[in-house]
Amino acid sequence: MEITLEQMSDIIGGMAGRGPGGSMKPAMEAVGSVAVASVNENFQDQGRPTPWTPHAIATLTMRAAKVAGKKSSYRTREMNKAELSMRGSLAGIKSVMTNAARAKIKSILRGEGQILIVTGHLMNSVGFKASEQSVAIGTNIKYGAIQHFGGMAGRGDKVKIPARPYLMLQDSDAYLIGKILATWISEGQVSNGLN
What contacts 5, CB < 8 A, 6 or more positions away? Predict the structure, then answer.
Protein backbone atom coordinates (compact mmCIF):
# COMPACT_ATOMS: atom_id res chain seq x y z
CA MET A 1 0.00 0.00 0.00
CA GLU A 2 1.34 3.42 -0.92
CA ILE A 3 0.19 6.67 0.58
CA THR A 4 1.34 10.14 -0.40
CA LEU A 5 2.10 12.93 2.05
CA GLU A 6 -1.01 14.77 0.79
CA GLN A 7 -3.17 11.73 1.51
CA MET A 8 -1.59 11.38 4.96
CA SER A 9 -2.34 15.06 5.62
CA ASP A 10 -5.98 14.53 4.59
CA ILE A 11 -6.26 11.49 6.88
CA ILE A 12 -4.76 13.40 9.81
CA GLY A 13 -7.04 16.36 9.15
CA GLY A 14 -10.04 14.04 9.10
CA MET A 15 -9.03 12.52 12.43
CA ALA A 16 -9.11 15.81 14.31
CA GLY A 17 -11.51 15.60 17.20
CA ARG A 18 -11.74 11.81 17.27
CA GLY A 19 -9.53 11.30 20.31
CA PRO A 20 -10.22 12.03 23.96
CA GLY A 21 -11.07 15.71 24.35
CA GLY A 22 -10.76 16.21 20.58
CA SER A 23 -6.97 16.36 20.78
CA MET A 24 -4.65 14.25 18.66
CA LYS A 25 -1.58 15.45 20.54
CA PRO A 26 -0.88 12.08 22.25
CA ALA A 27 -0.89 10.34 18.85
CA MET A 28 1.33 13.06 17.37
CA GLU A 29 3.77 12.62 20.28
CA ALA A 30 3.95 8.90 19.55
CA VAL A 31 4.59 9.67 15.87
CA GLY A 32 7.33 12.11 16.90
CA SER A 33 8.99 9.44 19.02
CA VAL A 34 9.03 7.02 16.08
CA ALA A 35 10.52 9.72 13.85
CA VAL A 36 13.30 10.66 16.30
CA ALA A 37 14.21 7.00 16.80
CA SER A 38 14.41 6.58 13.01
CA VAL A 39 16.65 9.65 12.65
CA ASN A 40 18.96 8.31 15.36
CA GLU A 41 19.18 5.05 13.42
CA ASN A 42 20.10 7.07 10.31
CA PHE A 43 23.08 8.43 12.24
CA GLN A 44 24.11 5.02 13.56
CA ASP A 45 23.90 3.43 10.10
CA GLN A 46 25.64 6.46 8.51
CA GLY A 47 22.84 6.97 6.04
CA ARG A 48 19.73 4.99 5.18
CA PRO A 49 18.74 3.70 2.71
CA THR A 50 21.76 5.11 0.82
CA PRO A 51 25.08 5.35 2.73
CA TRP A 52 26.44 8.86 3.17
CA THR A 53 29.49 10.13 1.29
CA PRO A 54 32.68 9.31 3.24
CA HIS A 55 34.76 12.06 4.81
CA ALA A 56 37.19 14.06 2.71
CA ILE A 57 40.92 13.76 3.42
CA ALA A 58 40.87 17.28 4.92
CA THR A 59 38.23 16.25 7.46
CA LEU A 60 40.16 13.12 8.39
CA THR A 61 43.30 15.23 8.83
CA MET A 62 41.54 17.66 11.16
CA ARG A 63 40.18 14.82 13.28
CA ALA A 64 43.59 13.12 13.46
CA ALA A 65 45.27 16.40 14.39
CA LYS A 66 42.83 16.89 17.28
CA VAL A 67 43.66 13.43 18.64
CA ALA A 68 47.38 14.14 18.22
CA GLY A 69 46.96 17.34 20.19
CA LYS A 70 47.95 19.50 17.25
CA LYS A 71 46.11 22.48 15.94
CA SER A 72 44.73 21.53 12.57
CA SER A 73 45.66 24.05 9.94
CA TYR A 74 45.94 24.40 6.22
CA ARG A 75 49.73 24.04 6.57
CA THR A 76 49.40 20.79 8.53
CA ARG A 77 47.01 19.38 5.93
CA GLU A 78 49.27 20.36 3.05
CA MET A 79 52.39 18.95 4.72
CA ASN A 80 50.73 15.58 5.29
CA LYS A 81 48.75 15.43 2.05
CA ALA A 82 50.89 12.70 0.48
CA GLU A 83 50.83 10.53 3.58
CA LEU A 84 47.11 11.04 4.15
CA SER A 85 46.19 10.13 0.61
CA MET A 86 47.07 6.58 1.57
CA ARG A 87 44.71 6.73 4.60
CA GLY A 88 46.29 5.04 7.51
CA SER A 89 49.88 6.15 7.20
CA LEU A 90 51.34 7.24 10.53
CA ALA A 91 54.19 9.16 8.88
CA GLY A 92 54.95 12.42 10.65
CA ILE A 93 53.22 11.47 13.91
CA LYS A 94 55.48 11.97 16.89
CA SER A 95 56.84 8.85 18.55
CA VAL A 96 56.01 10.21 22.01
CA MET A 97 52.34 9.34 21.55
CA THR A 98 50.82 6.42 23.31
CA ASN A 99 49.95 3.31 21.37
CA ALA A 100 46.27 4.05 22.00
CA ALA A 101 46.62 7.52 20.45
CA ARG A 102 48.45 6.09 17.43
CA ALA A 103 45.75 3.44 16.99
CA LYS A 104 43.01 6.09 17.23
CA ILE A 105 44.73 8.28 14.63
CA LYS A 106 45.26 5.32 12.33
CA SER A 107 41.57 4.46 12.66
CA ILE A 108 40.57 8.04 11.82
CA LEU A 109 42.85 8.19 8.80
CA ARG A 110 41.33 4.97 7.49
CA GLY A 111 37.92 6.64 7.69
CA GLU A 112 36.64 4.23 10.33
CA GLY A 113 34.92 6.87 12.50
CA GLN A 114 31.26 7.80 12.34
CA ILE A 115 30.56 10.35 9.62
CA LEU A 116 28.27 12.82 11.43
CA ILE A 117 29.06 11.74 14.98
CA VAL A 118 32.07 13.30 16.66
CA THR A 119 30.57 14.74 19.83
CA GLY A 120 26.99 13.55 19.28
CA HIS A 121 25.60 17.11 19.54
CA LEU A 122 23.80 17.05 16.19
CA MET A 123 22.33 13.57 16.66
CA ASN A 124 21.27 14.30 20.24
CA SER A 125 19.71 17.63 19.27
CA VAL A 126 17.08 16.05 17.02
CA GLY A 127 13.68 16.30 18.63
CA PHE A 128 10.03 16.87 17.88
CA LYS A 129 7.25 19.27 18.75
CA ALA A 130 3.76 17.84 18.70
CA SER A 131 0.58 19.88 18.37
CA GLU A 132 -3.11 18.98 18.16
CA GLN A 133 -2.89 17.92 14.50
CA SER A 134 0.78 17.72 13.51
CA VAL A 135 4.31 16.95 14.56
CA ALA A 136 7.50 18.72 13.48
CA ILE A 137 10.88 16.97 13.63
CA GLY A 138 14.13 18.89 13.49
CA THR A 139 17.22 20.29 15.16
CA ASN A 140 18.19 23.67 16.54
CA ILE A 141 21.89 23.15 15.75
CA LYS A 142 23.11 25.87 13.39
CA TYR A 143 25.12 23.55 11.13
CA GLY A 144 22.34 20.95 10.89
CA ALA A 145 20.99 22.26 7.58
CA ILE A 146 24.35 22.23 5.77
CA GLN A 147 24.96 18.65 6.92
CA HIS A 148 21.50 17.55 5.76
CA PHE A 149 21.27 19.41 2.43
CA GLY A 150 24.97 19.92 1.63
CA GLY A 151 26.43 23.05 0.10
CA MET A 152 29.36 25.40 0.30
CA ALA A 153 30.74 26.31 3.74
CA GLY A 154 33.88 27.49 5.50
CA ARG A 155 35.78 30.73 5.05
CA GLY A 156 34.73 32.21 1.76
CA ASP A 157 32.42 29.26 1.08
CA LYS A 158 35.32 27.30 -0.40
CA VAL A 159 34.53 23.91 1.15
CA LYS A 160 31.91 21.70 -0.47
CA ILE A 161 30.00 19.65 2.06
CA PRO A 162 28.09 16.74 0.51
CA ALA A 163 24.44 16.24 1.40
CA ARG A 164 24.04 13.67 4.15
CA PRO A 165 20.29 13.54 4.71
CA TYR A 166 19.66 12.47 8.29
CA LEU A 167 16.21 14.02 8.90
CA MET A 168 14.30 11.45 6.92
CA LEU A 169 11.92 8.62 7.63
CA GLN A 170 12.15 5.14 6.15
CA ASP A 171 9.43 3.01 4.58
CA SER A 172 9.25 0.89 7.74
CA ASP A 173 8.45 4.04 9.74
CA ALA A 174 5.35 4.66 7.63
CA TYR A 175 4.01 1.28 8.75
CA LEU A 176 4.56 2.09 12.45
CA ILE A 177 3.10 5.56 12.09
CA GLY A 178 0.11 4.11 10.24
CA LYS A 179 -0.53 1.65 13.07
CA ILE A 180 -0.27 4.42 15.67
CA LEU A 181 -2.79 6.56 13.78
CA ALA A 182 -5.10 3.60 13.04
CA THR A 183 -5.20 2.72 16.74
CA TRP A 184 -5.94 6.35 17.56
CA ILE A 185 -8.80 6.43 15.06
CA SER A 186 -10.35 3.12 16.11
CA GLU A 187 -9.69 3.08 19.85
CA GLY A 188 -8.88 6.66 20.83
CA GLN A 189 -5.64 5.56 22.46
CA VAL A 190 -1.98 5.52 21.59
CA SER A 191 -0.11 2.36 20.66
CA ASN A 192 3.59 1.99 20.00
CA GLY A 193 2.82 0.70 16.52
CA LEU A 194 4.51 -2.63 17.20
CA ASN A 195 1.44 -4.62 18.24
Answer: none
- Residue 93: per-residue pLDDT: 44
CA distance 173 to 14: 21
Cα–Cα distance between 163 and 169 in angstroms, integer?
Answer: 16
What pLDDT sits at residue 109? 54
Q: Are 8 and 169 in contact (CB under 8 A)?
A: no
CA nearest 116: which of 189, 64, 23, 52?
52
DSSP letters for 50-89 = SPPPPPPHHHHHHHHHHHHTPPP-HHHHHHTHHHHTTSS-
Of 130, 134, 129, whose CA–CA distance to 16 is shortest?
A: 134
101-105, 136-140, 190-194: range with lowest mean pLDDT: 101-105
Average pLDDT over residues 35-55: 91
**Once rounded to an integer, what is the mean pLDDT over residues 128-153?**
93
* DSSP β-bridge partners for residue 135: 130
Burial class (CB in 10 A: 0-12, 13-18, 19+), 1: exposed
pTM over 0.70, yes/no: no
Domain ranges of the chain: 5-53+117-187, 57-109
